[in-house]
Amino acid sequence: MVLDSAFLSRDVPLRRGITLRCHERAGAGGPTVLLLHGYGDSGRAFAPILPWLPRSWRVIAPDQRGHGDSDRPAEGYGVPQLASDAAALLDALAVREAVVVGHSMGSFVAQQLALDHPARVERLALVGAAACASTAAVDAMAAELRSLDDPVPDAFVREFQKGCLARPVPEAFFEDCVAQGRRLPAWIWRAVYEGFARFDARDRLGAVGCPALVVWGDRDAIFERADQDALLAALPRASLLVYEGTGHCPNWEEPERFARDLAAFVEAAAGTQAA
Fold this sequence. Notes:
8 strands; 36% helix; alpha/beta; Rossmann fold; eight-stranded mixed beta sheet
């Protein structure tokens, strides 16, 4: 699936010694929005929502370390390292602060970024998220990943992505997600999993002072309603939107609605009207 033609894809060297592929659309006076994708995906995973986001927004969707066309160093796949990459990317792009949107694994990175660099996060949107990664579904992946070998089977990636969905998505987009996942060697699948599977910010999120939006599909097979309640209890300024009949990926399954809800959240917090 091709990104919006207004997006420029380029390699951005970071001061941390790695290079991230970054997909970016210029804005016109609106906020900067940083989109952090989930496990096994890339910045291209936000393609469904891009046409619906306000054109005034500057939108930045990187391939996180190890994913897509970004570097795959031998180590550094913990959530704190990924959050440091995100902060370094903002530095490299001369962005002082951004609205940070994190999906699934990207939600852990977004939370960590808000904790480690609070001045950089203007608002926080967490999609298919949890404050603690350890759930039955996440923990069950460990055994399967131990036996994963190269080349990574198409069936593994396809079933992984299907398990995230409760609603159909465009075939071309789904196939692109599968192709992106198959590009990752087995050791990356394991290293990234080991990096986020122990994430637990429940006792720290009280320090996050910015407004937060939590978006959850009530047919999410990864994170349950109790995980959303834990986020709401921990984040001082959080609100929840529940998408009925939607799975782990509201931004894929209902992209127009998600973009509209995200814009309303940003506008309400900023007191401005996006164009």
